Amino acid sequence: MSAQMLPVVNLDVFQSSSGSSESLQECRKAADALIVYGALLLHDSRVSEDDNNTFLDLLEDYFNQPESVLKQDERPELGYQVGVTLENTEKPKCAAHEPCLDIIARLDPAERPLDISAHQPDPKCRFFWKMGDSPPYETAFPGLNAENVVPQASELRERWSPIMDRWGWAMKDAVEDLGEMVAIGLGLHGDTFRGAGKYGPHLLAPTASDLVKYAEKDTILAGFHTDLNFLTIHGRSRYPGLNIWARNTGKRISVKFPPTGRYLLVQAGKQLEHLSGGLIKAGYHEVVVNEDTLQAVERRKAQLPDRPLIRISSTFFWHLSSDYDLAPIRALQDRARALKGHPTGLGKVDLEEESVYEPMKVGHQVQNELRHIALLA
Ligand SMILES: [Fe+2]
């Protein structure tokens, strides 16, 4: 496994000197990082670690409730797109999806993810908190734009919305600004992605894994997969365990944030792959219990013995608008074709991979993906 650090993109430079050559260089760095790795680390001084910690505490308390209480917040009729998803519901698409199994087979054996072929759903829970603005037009996908669920327990109800919104907005601002940087870095108008996702059903989407129940090394908490949305952004988790695959080399990278400072991890999703005609590929990742996870559990137990031992991922899914017509941008698709097989290695990790991107509404793309992961009938 590679100990390599991902490229670090400085959003502060873009914020403070938009239009300067330094800023343009940072934009190109962002675009290239997504083409080469499918992922990057983002430095944004506006983001507060305290807000992330307050958010992680709230979610630990929420998922520490009995399952019967959590169950009241499930909305299976809405494809679980708001409220809670309990453990053993979501299946990694790869477990039964041949093109994805082929990708694993083509990886160097030393770089492969933990074996997901047993077809087990993920033992992780999730909460979806919608952060998007409702479209001012009649959407063809009302189910993907449903009202949020607020937990009932009195000790959670009061603090829930302000904490979720505060952290959610910090991540949303960061990822939208990064989207603008990437657009500029790709030679597009800065508003290209931001505009296409103006009414997207963006989600603050923490996952929760019970580290008492799933305390064995090499347990898969979330099996090898890509995200179905446009860009995913993560704050720091209290427990390591996220592995991502660099798109250019197929090497597995264990994600490590710089020890201090305001950093976020960003990974490309399927909607960006589709819109860029495969120039930027959605990044594969998994969450597992590894040696570092277990050490973090021991440290946490010693420091705060009364706190729940639950791994919360500080995750936000940024989406394109459901009614947006998803089709490759010509200039990017041409570049993707030109790069395929290019000796520099840019974006050429897997020449066998699918590269047909049929035009469709974003809402249909999302519904197709949700069926694959067993969240929609
Ligand atoms: Fe994911």
UniProtKB/TrEMBL annotation:
Gene3D superfamilies: B-lactam Antibiotic, Isopenicillin N Synthase, Chain (2.60.120.330). Residues 219-319 form the Isopenicillin N synthase-like Fe(2+) 2OG dioxygenase domain. It holds the Pfam family 2OG-FeII_Oxy. This is Isopenicillin N synthase-like Fe(2+) 2OG dioxygenase domain-containing protein. The lineage of its organism: Eukaryota, Fungi, Dikarya, Basidiomycota, Agaricomycotina.
